[in-house]
Design goal:
globular, about 30% strand, 5 helices, 10 strands
Length: about 210
Amino acid sequence: MKTLFRIVFCLFVTLTITTGFVTADSTNPAPLGFEFGMSDGDAKKQIKNNGHNIIKNEMDSKKVRTIIFEGVVVDLTEVKGIDQKTRLEFFHNKLMSSAVMIKTSDDLEFIDIQNELLKQIVSRHGEPSATDNMFSYDIWEWDIEHLGLVLSANRDKGKLKLEYTYHPVASTKVESELNLKRKGEYRHPADQMFKDGNFSQQGGPGTRTFTP
């Protein structure tokens, strides 16, 4: 009986990975192969273990670290040879969002991949909760438990992006930014003058400024 259970379990895992989506639930959502809430250190180990090259690893002033690597951990489309990159964003060292960015070579390939992604998402999560189009962009949005999912397509540039956002970490980021604006962000006056380009600005040490 235990052997049969192991076989069924292995088949289930194999099917979920080959269909392009790792199971995403409220306790361990990892739709693109990375568990939300994981640290950037663990993510870098996972990227290295999968044989991918990190092409960007930067942290901005809002405590958000962005890691981009070539390729994907989980294949989302059967089309091979396309330009794919994965972007991971961390807030306070917790994975907040993951996205796959795809660049196609021609219009037919673009349409095929877009339709394939839509088919996969709708079959798993149903019809989108919202859609929009603006200029050359088409956008589809889904609201999943604890997750936001957005598929965006740029017809003119042949680019597609599939992005998951983990609400618990994203909400913490928004609250942190609101608190910072309410209190005012402390900045060294010389740094602020350099950023503003106003070198004649006067201000004593400990100047407190408010960011818009």
